[in-house]
Write a structure and sequence with these properties.
Domain DUF7993: 1-138
InterPro entries: DUF7993
Number of helices: 3
Distance between the termini: 43 Å
Shape: globular
CATH superfamily: Transcription regulator MotA, C-terminal domain
Pfam families: DUF7993 (PF25956)
Radius of gyration: 14 Å
Region (Disordered): 85-106
Largest sheet: 6 strands, antiparallel
CATH architecture: Alpha-Beta Complex
Biased composition (Basic and acidic residues): 95-106
């Protein structure tokens, strides 16, 4: 039985990026991680690690430039990662709550939904949130 949990924000964000890029099911084939800051250091407020965008099928997958339309960003803090969803905020919030992830709205322009990924075990549930957002965007 595993006794240790991953609770390092930067490592959690890396695991989430790997999960999103490594899966080709449930809509995740239409997602790319873009604008990655490989040298990001966690901060108390959260430092932007990377963006999540809809894939542009005509783009070069090895190009680090923003590939498609961004719909979320991932930020790192010392002890967690934070997913900031810009599209389909209600869907993101509902899916996160059902997945027992901590969630709250962010009153900015445009508004965002914050989903807190507090350990490595929560990464798959955070990927489920991204899947729900992609499905909702496709259905719209």
């Amino acid at each position: 039985m595993v006794e240790e949990q991953i609770s390092d924000g930067k490592r959690i964000a890396q695991l989430l990026a790997s999960e999103l890029e490594g899966r080709n099911d449930g809509g995740l084939e239409a997602v790319v991680v873009t604008n990655a800051d490989r040298d990001v250091e966690p901060t108390a407020d959260g430092a932007r690690a990377y963006d999540i965008a809809f894939a542009d099928t005509d783009a070069d997958p090895d190009d680090d430039a923003e590939t498609g339309r961004r719909f979320a960003s991932v930020f790192v803090q010392d002890d967690r990662a934070r997913l900031e969803v810009e599209t389909s905020q209600e869907t993101a919030a509902e899916t996160a709550r059902k997945s027992e992830l901590r969630v709250r709205p962010k009153a900015t322009e445009p508004p965002r939904t914050l989903v807190f990924v507090e350990n490595g075990a929560a990464v798959k549930r955070a990927a489920d949130v991204v899947q729900a957002v992609v499905r909702d965007a496709r259905d719209s």
